[in-house]
Amino acid sequence: MTDAAFFAPLLEVRNLSLQYRSPGGPIPILHDISLYLKQGEVVGIIGESGAGKSTLGNAILGLLPPAFEQSDGTICISGMDLDRIDSRQGEALRRRRISAVFQDHTTSLDPLMSVGAQIAETIRAAEPTLCSEDVYRRVVALLKQVEIDDAERRFRDRPHQFSGGQRQRIVIAMALAGSPDLIVADEPTSALDATVQKQILALLRHLVEETGISILLVTHDMGVIAEIADRVVVMRHGHIAEQNAVSVVLDQPQNDYTRRLLAAVPKIRLTGDSVDTSVADTISVPALAIGGHGITKTFPLGRSVLPLMNSRRKAALQDISFDLLPGAITGVVGESGSGKSTLGRIFAGLEQADAGTIRIGEEIVDASRSSRKTGLLGRVQMIFQDPSVSLNPRMTIEKALRESVRYGARATGNGSGSLGAMMDRVGLSRSLLARYPHQLSGGQKQRVAIARALLARPQIIVADEPTSALDVSVQAEILDLLKEIVAEQNVTVLFISHDLAVVQALCRFVYVLKAGQIADSGSSDFIFTRSQSPYTRSLIDARPRRFTH
Amino acid sequence: MIAQTLRTWWKWWKWWPFRHNELPKLFLCAYVLLALAAPLLAPQNPYDPTQIFAWEASSAPGTPSGGGYVYWLGTDGLGRDIASTILYGLRISLMVSVISSAIAAAIGLAAGVSAAFFGRWVDIVIMRLVDLQLSLPTMLVALIAIVTLGPSIDRIILALVIVQWAAYARMVRGVALGERGKPYVDAARLLRLPTHRILFRHVLPNSVPPVVTLIPIEIGHAIALEATLSFLGLGVPVDKPSLGSAVANGFQYLLTGQYWISLFPGLALFGLIASINFVGEDLRRRLDPRREPQ
Q: In what residue span(s) does the ABC transporter domain sit (chain A) (predicted)?
């Protein structure tokens, strides 16, 4: 090893510019990116969608499609310029020194192959001379290293027999199998629940301290950065906005964009300084007019050939009773699989429950009957998670909104508002009416979805994770809009989310759902400051500490 | 040396029209134009007995005709000009296959979307019919239809529709099932839109694109099937021209060395189906949203 290679950082990207060759001429994607990463360091790359952070990660991994070309700059590993050396050598260097962990643990693993065999395959690719006995021992050691219990026995299990968090651990074990120096982790915890995310981040941090490996962490989540990164690179529109130690970026951000990004991250308050006395810790049920009682829903587990054999069913919701504060936002929080979305869909009449009733004012509706027949359908409007699929791609915004006015308002008998006024209200230019959904940004689409829901003049709106598909800065704007509208129009909102901070910012009353049951409920103030429920506490603790006060 | 040769080949191959699928498009355009202009281009109407010179039967390609033109592709055993037969035959082949595919696509679209949207017994009835249809050999179904209905052009179209609709229905159902589960359909349901509006304004327009890619492929099938039926004497009636019956006309003469009666209509048929399939494949690739930019 030459001196230069010895003193060079593990990874150095110098003045990297990338462009995308499109039929209409090259489109610049990355501009003049320079960063470095030392042995045993965790560097986070943060940015909103379209910032070019994943492209940068893939460029380092050598995974960019051929339509991308490097117009300037170099990527060096231990001082060796990947462009300068033969491309086959460069590839070999990458394969030996760098490995990857991607977001989606369901597609990163081969569903037909046992996890042990998959890890063994990676080890053999890196060290073809190893005998099978040694490979087996290495695999078991790796599984133990990523804290999979009972590694010897689970060696032969297939990916579907593991939970999401365990699968991501196995993906990490695979990334470690070739003994690389650097792991590029692209949103490694974005598909996981907060409590699991915390464990995976702790594991990554532990691996860095134990083995001296380096991690380049690509993420959109400030909380993840705050939890494990040593240094942060803030990216925006393909440029580096700021690059500094994590404590500097979080506490004294130098760049305007970083400041805005940090301000947009919703934070949890754990002190009850703004005690909301208007809502009691618990709601006295008969006083309120909107809610559900005894809602139960099960799904069949698998499908049997014989119709009468379908007896095994999984309970999604068990005897849930809830009340909504009229003219305010009530939150339902839970991790994935807690049944919170099912509850929202039953309340909106999109799904039939097995049992239970829904009360809207004086009316009590049987939730186990067809919602079209009971008249429940149409009383409640919904705002969905992903605005790119909640608007018909073949309808202009104007047509979609007009439909809402024409058909939606019919049910309640209220007059229709003008589309233009509604566009103004949700903060969109009237000129967008002629556009199709794909011509709008994610935030704009979600505003259209809100406008569509409002134009139907509903009493009640169910918002199912309306901001989880959006960037933080856009999320903040949409949440503000929701708050204003609720205050103005006197609608009652059931707000479903996995994000405690968002729920606290928005809701006056909160239900915590766990595996189809209500684990905790109370005023927002009570839940976040005084609740004794261990489950609620564990959810709050899973939040990155930096963003709780 | 070898690498150099390969590189040169590659350079030429890049300009070769097949690579960009230009040649099949040209061919197809030419076929359509020839079919449309057949009465103007063909020297004789081979199915008008007054224009046929019976004594010039089985003339070899290039023989001059008594009518002042040349039999460039020869004549058949009854003295009909092969070139003219091909031109007139193309008209019927194209018309029959395009009309039957359009009708089959419309029926399949309606059936597939209904099956996906209504589910339950509607789905069961439609899809079992589709299964039934697809489990019977195409040829057999067409034969039974023609034998029971009798040969005529509208009956052939009917037979081809019966054979083809199921493929469309099954494809559309798959697509529509995916679309039905998307939130924009939920949003439409929440507005209590009438069912027909959800179907025709929301689910249907989003289920059409994949069907468009199936149409050219099915037209190719229809042409082949019509030609087969006509070859067997069960397709287009004997007093109408068809590529299939033109091939059949020369069948008995093949062994006597009069190859042209069967060969030229056969080549025309081959070229037509091949160009349609190439264009269809090109269309499919272009409409595939996952395609890589060139």
A: 13-262, 296-540
